Amino acid sequence: MTHHVIFNASQIFLSFVKKSLESDTWTLESGVLCTISCASAIEAIVNELLQEDAKIIGWDELKIKSKIENIANANNQKIDWGSSHWQNADRIIKVRNYLVHFKGENLGLFGTPHIEEMLTNFVLVKQESKNADSTKQSEKYNFSKNTITKYYTSTLLALRELDNAVKTNDSKMRDFLNSEAYEFFTIL
Is residue 132 situated within a structural domain? Predict the structure, then answer.
C-alpha cells in the first residue's frame, strides 16, 4: 500500500533546535547548526504560507525578508521590524546567509582575554583586516546557548505572528508553533 506523505521540514528544523537547547552539551557546532535551522524553519514556513496565499505572484523569486513583508501586506498587516522578535528573525537570516555563503573573511574570537571563556561563548567577529586588534569590526556572530535560546523563541514568536496574520486554515501549523510538539511527517 502506498501512502501520500507530507514531509514537514520546518518541524524537523525546529525540533533539532529544541533538542539541542535541552541538551547538557553545547558546542560551536550546536550554535551554528541551530542558527541555520532557525533560519531554515522561517523560510520553510514562509514559503508554505505563500503557497497557500494565491494573492502573491512570483514569490519564489523574492528574498526571505521581502516574502515576509509581502505576506503581511497581502493580509493588511505590517511587520514591526523594531520589535525584538522580528529584529532577531532578521539577525538569524543575516547570520545564516553569512554562514551558508561564507567568503573566507577574517575572523577573530571576541569578548574576553581568557580563551576558555571565549570558547564557551562562541562570539566570532568578522574583521576588516587580519590585525586582531583592529577596531574596524563590522559584525559579531554569537553562537552561545543563551543567544540561540533567544533565536529559537524569536523564531516561534515571529512565525506565530505571521501565521495569525494570514489566518491560515492549517490548524496543524498553529498547533505545533504553540505546542512545540513536532511531527516530521503527515500521512494523508
Answer: no
